[in-house]
Structures are given as structure tokens and as C-alpha cells.
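batch_manifest entry 22 of 60
target: Cation-translocating P-type ATPase
source organism: Streptomyces gibsoniae
requested by: lab member K.T.
priority: normal
notes from requester: please return C-alpha cells only, no post-processing; we will run our own comparison against the previous entry in this batch. if the run fails, retry once and flag.
--- input ---
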Amino acid sequence: MSHIDAGAELDPVHPAPLPGRARGLSAAEVAERVARGDVNDIPVRSSRSLGEIVRANVFTRFNAIIGVLWLIMLFVAPFQDSLFGYVIIANTGIGIIQEWRAKKTLDSLAVIGEARPTVRRDGVTAAIATSEIVLDDIIETGPGDKIVVDGVCVEADGLEIDESLLTGEADPVVKRAGAPVMSGSFVVAGSGAFRATKVGREAYAAQLAEEASRFTLVHSELRSGISTILKYVTWMMVPTAIGLVISQLVVKQSGFKNSLARTVGGIVPMVPEGLVLLTSVAFAIGVIRLGRKQVLVQELPAIEGLARVDTVCLDKTGTLTEGGMDVTELRPLQGADETYVRKVLGALGESDPRPNASLQAIIDAYPDSEEWRCTEALPFSSARKYSGASFSEGDGEASTWLLGAPDVLLGPDDPALTETERLNEQGLRVLLLARTSRELDDPRVKDGTRPTALVVLEQRLRPDAADTLRYFADQNVRAKVISGDNAVSVGAVAGKLGIAGEVMDARRLPENQAEMAKSLDKGTVFGRVTPQQKRDMVGALQSRGHTVAMTGDGVNDVLALKDADIGVSMGSGSEATRAVAQIVLLDNSFATLPSVVGEGRRVIGNITRVATLFLVKTVYSVLLAVLVVCWQVEYPFLPRHLTMLSTLTIGIPAFFLALAPNRERARPHFVRRVMWYSVPGGVMAAVATFVTYLIARHHYTGPGSLEAQTSAATLTLFLISMWVLAIVARPYTWWRVVLVAAMGVAFLFVLAVPALQHFFALKLVGVSIPWIAVGIAAVAAAALEFVWKWVDRRVPV
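--- output ---
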């Protein structure tokens, strides 16, 4: 009896022709279709092109505003007043380079995880790239395979296809020769082959698949929150800027050009241009870091999403255990002959061309009997929990056998169940071999079966699973083990990995979502879960406000992976699971998940810090402009002053803080949190700076007075901004202390060096006003400390 190995789709070419089956296209026919353009040539990309990256980073609303103001400064003011424009160019360049690096990382990983369907050409099979399929190709398929193009079934051996991702219908559809198959669906049981009838953009799910697998920078709480903040900033900025322009051109005490320069100096800091840039850079570097650990992030928000997860649903097989199994014992029942049982198991193993892990262990343990011939087969289905086959035995006898879960095939009082439960309690997996007198296509085929033997299998635990589960427990992330296996067996495996909690049989779970959610809160380990139940369980947890991650590698996990907030698939998993998951662990290491969580926490925590820095500047810039308009005085700063302040208190520190390690658990309500801190910080800075400016205006008169007034106001604003930075940089580490101190030393260096004093038009005059500026800054800093501590108690954690 011939047997096709489970990994056949990855073999380069089978040298032997395939008799009795469609031979597929010849090389000449393939070449003809390629020439005609009948190729599945959809450019499925995992990231943006270089042109799109450049456009996204360069052509932004705020870059346009800054660009216009920069051009004005180049014509009406000294070079140092146009420095802000060069800073924007440098920042944008950094953003483009980092995203391009992330793109290259993603594209190289996507090639590793790409599906390679098996096609027949010239009578032999070969695994090719999806983009190389041509019209009329014969494509072989088996459990877990994704249907990549539309077609018509030409061969079917118990073939069942799940079309729920396209139609919403949960039940698998049985396919026979002549039945249509649609791209975007996936095989749940059996095997077969189909002829491609629509390829490329004509395929039913082509556009859907392209969008679903595309790397994206949108649709995350963090980025949508930043967009919301920028929208509010724009509303505040436009009327304030108009008022500032009018007031400065009316005042004009120091000439038109100087007034125009000060107007621009008031508008530029209102724009939090670096915030979007640093968010993109932080995400891009996260992708690169994870890429080095063989993690493919198919949708960027998954980095952020996994950091917010509070419940992880783990599929046992392939996640907590390794894919392979070993047969440890064969126990004949009711006096069955062990030699005969071994022949049955050998024949059953060879009857399935695409065996799962359990059947593969049986194939390895029991060789095929050449005299037995399979006349009909029923492939394994995770919904049925058993497979079967009918044979013509060597002596002419006919028999039909089932192999599957004992508690599904046996009655509740059967004595074999007692033995099964005892083995399950040891964490062993048990399959029942039973003989049936009914036809395999009979809906009641399992009724009246005769138990013949128990096959005991040992699962291999992943060596890294216990440490990973311990990490989630330490982080207050609840683990729920969900498996199609016997609940007692799953509970024993979970116990070995340190997972404590109630073990439940999913067949006894209520169907009502609210009641199911209550049961899920009580239980930790669930066995005998159907694919549809996995999906329902994810929905029930989400209905209670949980952010749910689902891990899996089998076709029975696809629906749950699709519905979970974050789907995580193993690289060795089925094509269908890899297609719907947001994160693919290409090295199949469950231990990589903490790294993904860590990257998400780093991005969210650090961007929250950085956003506070940027928006404090925006708030004080807008409020200062309003105060200047109301008092009808000249704006206190030139662009060069605010460029220096922004660089020392925001630009340089923010870059380091955004990329620093951060293990804090992600907190919700990003916009609310940032605004609670930014608004009082900006108000304190603006009021204190303006008070110093008014006192300096009263004290300094005559030639050079405006420069002295500006210097005093700059000192106050710098000191308050440094205090904001010092608070945001907490908790302190050695490098954060050095970072804050270095920024202070750099400002003192500017005040001490005459050339820099002249370059930045910054010189403190006298003693009294500078010390008054320091005193006002100290009072504002103390008030800010008090207010932010009060906010800490008010803002939800």
C-alpha cells in the first residue's frame, strides 16, 4: 500500500509518476499560460514599498506646516532661526531608514513562513510558491491546507472544507469530484485535488487575502489615540496661530522681520511633529528585534495588542507539547489477538495519506501489512474525534474499523473507560481501536462498536513551556488550556507544567454565552473542545471585557485564532493557521512569546512617556501664544530658542526613552492618561514663563532689552521643562540620570560659551532677574510635582 508522508508538500519533486490520477499540466502548457498572463501573480506584500514609506514619512500635515514656516525663515531670519527645518529633515530621514529596515526584516521572514502548495505537473508533484500557480494547475490538498485559488474538485477522499471565513457557515462542507472550492477556505479533513479555474485577482478571496496578510501601521489603540490627540492639537493650533500672526504684525516694536521670526517661533513648537515619527520608529525597531528572534509580525498592532492581553488560551497539542508522539503501550481488549491488532493499526496508518501526529506515531510503531487493501476511508476530524477505514484483508475477509477517542466511541458504562481514565490521569493520550458493523458513511457508524484495543501514546512536553507559563502567571495573565483531547489527560499535562485550577469537560459547558463565560472564569483546563466551541469560548471571554490571545497550530484552531484579539501560530502549523494569525513563531518556540509581550510593553510604556513630553510643549506653546495675544506684547522667543529647548528637553531624551527597556504592564486609556499629565504640565510651564517675561519686561528697558527679557523667560522655561523630563524619566536608572544631567550641562555650556551665546541670542543680564527666573521655575516645579502625584491617584491603572 503506498503512503504519502505528511511533509510531502515540502518535498522538491517526487520522481515517480502518479498512476491512475490526473497528471496535471505539461511544461509546455505551463509556459503557454505564463505567456498569456494566466498566473496567480497577486503581489501579496507584508509591508509597504519604499515609495510608500517615503511618502508616508515626508508628506504629512505637520511636515507641510513646518516646511512652509521653514521657507519663510530662510528668507527673513538668520540661519540659526531656521534650524528647526533641518531637525525635521533629520527626523524624517531616521523614520524612513528604520521603517525600511523593518520592511526588509518582515519580507525575509514572510518568505520563510509562506505557504507552498503541492501541484502536479507532467505526472509528478512539486511544492511551488503560490505566485507560480497557473490556470488549470492540479493542486493537491490535505488537512490544514489553505485553498489558495478558486477551482473545481477533481479528486476527493473524505474531503471536508471549512468555508466559514468566507460564508460565515460554521459546519465543514463535504466536497466530491466536480464540486467548487473557493480561495480563503481550508481543509479540515480528508484529502483531494482540485483544478485551478480562477487565479490572480479573479479569485474569490484574492483581495481579502491580500489585505488580511498585509503589514499595517494603523488600527491600534496607540496610533488611533495619537491621531485623536493630533486632531485636537490642530483645532487649538489654527485659531491661536492666526491670532498670534495678527498681534505680532500689529505690535512690530522690533521691525517686521523680527516680528515675523517671533511669530514663526510661536507657531513651530505647537506642532508635536516628532511624536508620530518616534511612534513609527519604536514600532519598526520592535519588528526588527522580534525578527531576529524568528517572530513574524503580520499585523503591527499585534506587538501592542499582546502587551494588553490578560487571558491566553493555549491549545495543548503543538503549543504545550511538541508535535511528535510515541506509542508506549498496546492493550488488547476482550481477548483480541495482539498480532492481528498490530496488522489493523498498520493498515489504518497507511489508509490516511495525510496523518496527524497520533496516526504518525502509530505508523512509526506498526508497519503496514501488504496483503490488506483499503476499500474506503473516513479521515480524522477534530469535530468527530475519530477516523476509520474499511479493508479487504489478505484472506478475503472484509472489516471496518474506527480509531479515536474512547469516551466518544464507547458508552458511559463501558469498563474500558475506567482503564482509559487511569491512563489519562498520568498525562497519557489514549486512542481506542474498535470494530464496527456499519458503513463508514452511516451517521451512526460508532453505535454498537466492539472495543478491540487501547493504544497508549506519550506526548512530548515542550521544554520551554513551564517557564513561559510561569512568566504569564507573574504578569497576571491568566492561562486557559483548551484542547480537543480528554479533559483528564489535558489536566495531567497542564499539572506537569505547573498550571493549577479546575479541569472541565467542554461537552458539559452551557451554550449560553453569559453562562459559558462564568464557567470559563472558574475553570482553567478544558478538554473535548470542538473547533466551534473554541471560537465560542474566545467570544465568551471577550464578552467579559478580557483581551484574549489564542495560540494554536492545527486546523481546528483557525476559527478561534481569527476571532481572538491576538492570534499566535507556530511556524510548523497548518497553512490556514499561519494565514489568520497576527503573529507567527517561525522557530516554533513557545518561549518567544514573552519577548513579544516585552516589545509591546516597551512600545506602549515608552510612547506614553514620550507623548507626555511632546504634548506639554504643545500646551505651553498654545497657551503662551494666547497670553501674548491678550497682553498685546511681542512673543518672547525666536525659533532658535525653542529649537534648542526642544532638542535638549524633548528631542534627544525622547529618542532614548522611546527605545529603552520597559517592563511595565500596558495600561488602557492612552489619550486620557497623556492629557491628564500634559495639560497641567503645559499650563504650569506657560504661566511661570509668562510671569518671568512680564517681570523682565518691567525691569529691562532700552536697547537690547528684548534679548535680556527673552533670556530670562528661556531660563524659566528650560528649568520647568527639565523638571518635566526628570519626572517622566522615573524610575531612575544610571543611564537615565546621566541623560537628564547631560541635558542640563549642555544648557549651561550654551550660557557659558560666548560664541554659543551669540549664536542662540541668549545672555543673562544682571543677577536679580535670573535668580527670580530660577525661583519662579522652582515654585512651578513644586506645584507640578504635587499636581502629577494627585493625577497618579486619579488616572485609572
